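Q: Sequence in, structure out?
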Amino acid sequence: MKPTKEAAQMTPAELGQYIDQSVLKPEFTVEEVRKYIQEGIDYKCKTVCINPAYIDIAREMCKGTGTGVCVVCDFPFGVSSTESKARQAEVICNKGDVEDLDIVANYGFIRSGMWDEFEADLRAVTVVAHRYGSLVKVIFETDALTTEQVALATEYACRAGVDFVKTSTGFFTGRENKGATPEIIQVMIDAAKGRCKVKGSGCIRTREHFLQLIDMGIDRMGIGYRSTPVVLGLDAQTGSAETKSSY
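A: Exactly. Output:
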C-alpha cells in the first residue's frame, strides 16, 4: 500500500523494512552466506532470503535481531509436481521461525492458460505454509509473460490465498531481464486490488528505482546483497559499504 510519507523522507531503517536481502547464489560458501546474512541484519532488512540448505544458520543469526528469515521453495524453476512443492514447503516451514516462503509458480501453466492447475498448485503450498504461520510470496517470472498473463496470474494467485505476488527469481535466462519495472508493478497492484501484497524483485539496483516503487505502493522488494547499501543511500555515506557488498 502507499506509504504515509514519501520514500525519500524515510530513514535507512524504515527503508530496510521494505527489503528481503537476497543471499541466493548457489556458489556461495557457508562463510559468504553468513557474511551476507549479517549484512542484511546490520542494514535492518525485513528479511534475508536464503536457500533451504541454510535455514538453521539464518535462524540462529537472525534470532532476536528484528530481521526475519525468508526461504525459497522450488527455486528457481517452479516445475516440480504439486505434491513435491507442498512437501518441500512442509519441510521448510516445520523448521520454525520461517517468516516468509517464496515459491516459484509454474509459469509454464500460466503461458499455457492452465489456470485451474496453476491455482491448485499454489493453494496446496499456501495451505501448508499458513498452517505454520509463514507468509507465501509467489514468483511469476514476469519477463517470461505478457502483461495480460501477469494480470491473470495475479487474479488466480489471490484466489489461491497467497500473501504476495512477486515479479522475478533473478535467475531467468534466454530473454532480456527487466525485472520489477514500474509498469509491471502497476499491473500487479491494479490486478491485486488490495487482496494481496506486491513484491518486486530483479533489476532493482538504483536508489531512484527503489524509492519510486515505494511511492507507487509496493510492499516489499528483493534486493541483491551488493545493491542493499546503494538503495538505502548508505554507500556514499559510509564510503566502505559499497566495496564491502560488491564481493
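Strands lie at 19-23, 47-50, 68-73, 100-104, 135-139, 164-166, 197-201, 220-224.
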